[in-house]
Request: fold
Amino acid sequence: MDSRLNLDKKPRNWQYRLSLRSSEAWTRFCLVAIPEEQEEFCPCILPMGNKLSSFHSSCFRTTTGYDVFLNHRGPDVKESVDSLIFHNLQNKGLRVFFDKNSIQVGDNIPQSIEGGIHSACAHIVTFSPNYAESVWCLKELQLIVKTRTSIIPVFCGVRPSEIRMKTEEGVYARAIHKHGGMFESHLVDEWKKALSVVSYIKGYIF
Reply:
């Protein structure tokens, strides 16, 4: 069963921390909401999906490149949710591709992103309301799905049903429809397929 946290009902001074716990394999993905005004916090521990539970922690010690790639819509979550994911995973010794920290001045941006995607053992995809408006996000997602590596979806302010676009309602359906007028149909179909594939992976909703 998915756990849900209603962000709209929380005071603005709540901080969100996401951390990844590992033993012999990744076994837990923890979502912890910590109110600044309280010393105690209430953790909501969510079980890992089957894909990550099959990973041995040695993967993260021996693979060259990155352990985890963060795919996200910058204006929505870069300075909040994904920044916290990045710092918590990095503090646990994982090598995380987070564009604002991993791409240096002089680097070729598309090549750096593609290299990060292909070298990562796992990918965390943060779906947010404006995610599908970004062609960058959709192209990254398309590549991520093609790597056939483990994917952890995080649904931030949207539900999986919106991403599946069974109807023309919803921000994702409207964004994809808009792209249909600017890009070739086969490319848009690939983006829709990638969105659908990841939306059916058990993830974390808040």
